[in-house]
Specification:
Length: 738
Amino acid sequence: MKNKLLKRFAFGLFALITLILVAATIVEKAYGTSFAGEVIYCSPWMVALWGVAAHFAFFYIVRRRLYKQIVTFSIHISFLLIITGAFLTHKYGIQGRVHLREDDSAVNQYILADGERAQFPFSLQLQRFELQYYNGTFAPMDYVSHISLSDGEESVAGIISMNNIFKYRGYRFYQSGYDKDGKGSTLSVSYDPTGIAVTYIGYLCLFVSMLAFFFQRGSLFKRLLQHPALRRGVFAIAAVASASSVSASPQTLPKEVAESLCNLHVYYNDRICPLQTLARDFTAKLYGKTTYKGLTAEQVLAGWFFFYDDWKHEPMIKIKGEEVCRVLGIEGKFAKLSDFIGSGGYKLEPLLSSDEAPMRRNAESANEKFNLVSMLCTGSLLKIFPYRESAKGNVVWYSLSDKLPQEMPYEQWLFIGNSMNLVAEQIARNDWEETRRLLDKIGMYQRREAAGEIPSGLIFEAEKIYNSTNINRILAMSCTATGIICFIFSLLYDGKGSRMMRGLRTALQIGLSLVLLYLTMRMALRGFIGGHLPLSNGFETMQFMAWCSLLLTLVIGNRFRLFVPFGYLICGLTMMVAMMGESTPRITQLMPVLQSPLLSIHVVVIMLAYTLFAFMMLNGVAALILNCLRSKGSEEKIEHLALISRLMLYPALFLLTIGIFVGAIWANISWGRYWGWDPKEVWALITMLVYSAALHTQSLRWFCKPLNFHLYSVVAFITVLTTYFGVNFVLGGMHGYA
């Protein structure tokens, strides 16, 4: 009886905490982070609730004599250590900030989170602040504070930058901000030796225990893995295609000449890249695709720049919103540039100040496209002329419409001012050989003037290959359709021993391998071009999840029923989600705070976990459909699917847990706190708590029934969707970029 009460209190309290956390994220969205933190997350009653739940959990695992299963016991104790460390940080940890100026004397005070002042047992002075940029650009790469610390007769020098903290006598200093003039720096201050130590011990114990779990003899996971039903295999069917048509095209350069133009370098999006990249972004932004009437993106850009009078009457500017279309006087979704101007002036002017948010957003989107064309046609978008300043040695990139510096040599000024006019003259004469020769001269000027600042030839060519091999949209649609067809076919057909089935299975495996090869190539190119692992935004993480689904399917698809269609389906859907904003978002320089190997580990393990949860969800959907069909052998299939899902639950949950705590360590190194109750952090914790309930089959017997487990797997996946999409598109927070 005591065990039952302890169990009800322990699981009941953690269920209550989960519901409160869900409500708290909604409150945070409505009233702000500080309000939610004060009233819910860090309130005395919430701290007490966590403490009571932890105590009941501890007493329950002791009463269950879980200490006889050392690994399982260690996992639970690790969580209790982490909760204890969090309490110590909350109770005794000190957070604050200190502002330093290069020309000021040493300071020995800092400001606490509540605005009060506190005293250092030493003094700090800023010797120099340095804002480092990516090579040849003005995109910040790092913020570096060089400080000196005086403690009595002892003097210590230190360097603080993003992901590089400075420690002294229990105090930890983090780079937080800087003054606009570059002469001052703001540092975050943290003093929490006990809480961090206990928490990190908990993290280490948890990681070791989770690894040991998979080698533990006699565990439920081992028994599931040795189940005879896992020796069965299966699978089935596929294929899709698409087509397009073209009509008369406006005047532009021949394809080869347009390619020569776009082989030039351009300063764009805070980095130096092929002009081809800008051309593709320009065309996709205007038209929604990277080709137009059979013309390449390079030809579209060249057409707008050199044949403006022809192109301004071309209906290729995609418009959203019925009211915007009505104001522009167009039928359908595409407008001409000339549609934006009427007898009364700029037609969109009234809509840009509208009180109706959706209408204003659509007008702003159309206005942005109008301005983009204007920037190209005036030449201000094409920053293709580098100039190395003699004083600083920095390379600055100029466009045709920019005011050139007075100290620039006359010959160079003449070249920049006249080179594109000469190109235009040769284009007017249709002298394509001379046009290409002049473009080559501009390219030679770029390489000479920006030597050491432009990307290497290998990176430049890699980006051109990356730009030219984008079939993401077609592939996403094809994989989704294949997955749906395979899924339906597998539920209705069981002829797994026939020659036809073996042939189809082989064809599907080859298809998976080809898609995996394509995604691997795209990710490798994107990482090589950007100079970092491509895991820093929503597009890249969803693309990685698609890659994970394919890899898992190929590795274990032969052993587990339904993995082949699920692999195709998850790959297709995640790629579609990745392209919700753009088919291929821009490659950007990595923000300073994201330049940590812990970020890559954090993203990789969490996306692997989400992929496994997605497989479990689809398994659950298949089982529920089979239960409704009630065909012969459906019960056996449902149990088989439950067995597979239970097996996937262990690595999925462990990967998610590791990912959360690696993220916490990264946050502690970057910002001085390992948990900030950001909506994505909270929902990741909610996901972990929700899925962990399904592991406790001996305490929660409801999960022992296969159909119950499947239903829970489907419903629980809502937490994954909320963590990734709900936070990004609704709840917001500092993780909104991913």
